[in-house]
Design goal:
With 219 residues, this protein is mainly β. The chain is 9% helix and 52% strand. It has a twelve-stranded antiparallel sheet, with no helix packed on it. It is globular, with a radius of gyration of 20 Å. The N and C termini lie far apart (42 Å).
Length: 219
């Protein structure tokens, strides 16, 4: 009887442990590390909208993103990010929080929209396409895509030189062509830059706002 009680206790503890840990552990090569306790601090600056100049930056504010907890929704583990400024992942905010799901190296939002994915062989890889948008009354396409950049791609900040490998950008194109041959011909809305084992290192929003990673903690 005592042996049976011990086995039941061990079994119950095992079940509790399974329910208390996310199903998908972050890998050592993650470009968007998701684990409770991870945080990133960014300093936002404005600069000349025509050309980036590290010597002509105006400090605006400091913001932070942190993984607060995880929740099990529809049998999937969603990591809940908080403290996300409006200009960083703002389109995924839900009541001031961001829900992300990590599955097979692809990061999804709570609405199954792709947030991040590995680079798989193409120059550009679409993350999201919306054909129902308009720009100045003209039917247009909104696209988010990811591209692989050279390993030494970098930008100089007031604090350091930041390197990245992956870039995610959003564009408006007044064209219903299903292939984005040259994103440079379209109106860029934002670009976000990611480094291995770090996460997002730079967020470019619009014409003149840059948020640079200042410090971070990864589990």
């Amino acid at each position: 009887m005592q042996r049976l009680s011990c086995l039941l206790i061990i079994f119950a503890v095992g079940l509790f442990a399974c329910d208390s840990e996310p199903d998908n552990d972050p890998t050592s090569e993650s470009y968007l590390p998701l684990a409770v306790g991870n945080y990133w601090v960014y300093k936002t600056y404005s600069t000349d909208s025509n050309q980036y100049n590290p010597l002509n930056l105006t400090y605006i504010q400091e913001d932070s993103i942190y993984v607060d907890r995880f929740e099990i929704l529809e049998d999937d583990t969603f990591y809940v990010l908080k403290g996300v400024p409006a200009h960083m992942l703002g389109e995924y905010n839900q009541n001031g929080e961001v829900y992300l799901r990590d599955s097979s190296e692809v990061i999804f939002g709570i609405n199954n929209k792709k947030i991040f994915m590995p680079f798989w062989g193409n120059l550009y890889r679409n993350l999201y396409i919306d054909y129902g948008t308009t720009q100045n009354g003209i039917p247009s396409i909104y696209r988010e895509y990811i591209e692989h950049t050279p390993d030494d791609s970098s930008i100089t900040t007031p604090q350091s030189t930041i390197y990245w490998i992956y870039q995610i950008s959003g564009y408006y194109c007044t064209d219903y062509d299903t292939i984005l041959n040259d994103p440079g011909d379209c109106n860029k809305l934002f670009s976000r830059y990611f480094a291995q084992n770090v996460g997002m290192v730079c967020d470019y929003e619009g014409d003149s706002l840059y948020a640079f990673l200042s410090r971070y903690h990864i589990q």
